[in-house]
Amino acid sequence: MASSLTCAGVVWAVLSFLCAAASCVGFFMPYWLLGSQLEKSVSFGTFRRCSYPVRDESRQMTVMVEQCGRYASFQAIPSAEWRICTVVTGLGCGLLLLVALTALMGCCVSELISRTVGRVAGGIQFLGG
């Protein structure tokens, strides 16, 4: 297997992949904010939530749903700021994964990544972060 990366490039590729994977896991997990409501533990992230209150019309009261799930729609995300955060974080994770997977391919394919491509990839990583 030929490589277009130096030893530092291989380390960069592996660390890029690990950081992108950690960012994506953090994005998909609903544990950004933790607290309690109606004496139950509650957590939520940009587009997922766990243990959330809903109105039970048959009993005319608010009950806690003790399960994790996504919001029903993009508009159901609680605020405009959280919607913006969802989009920006999702795009950042996508950019980080794109660069990391390209860098990992550079470990296996000769002449895939040049000095210019490496600099552009570093800039994309900066934007993605």
UniProtKB/TrEMBL annotation:
Mind telling me which residue stretches traverse the membrane in this protein? 87-109
Instruction: Report if keyword Membrane is assigned.
Output: yes
What's the protein's topology in the membrane?
A: Multi-pass membrane protein
Cellular component per GO? membrane
Task: Kindly list the places in or outside the cell where this protein is found, as annotated in its UniProt entry.
Answer: Membrane
UniProt keyword Phosphoprotein, yes or no: no
What does the UniProt keyword field contain?
Membrane, Transmembrane, Transmembrane helix
Q: Name one Pfam family in it.
A: L_HMGIC_fpl
Q: What is its main location?
A: membrane
Gene3D superfamilies xref list: 1.20.140.150
Q: Where is the signal peptide?
A: none
Q: What is this protein called?
A: LHPL6 protein
| Species this protein is from | Serilophus lunatus (silver-breasted broadbill)
Per the record, the gene is: Lhfpl6
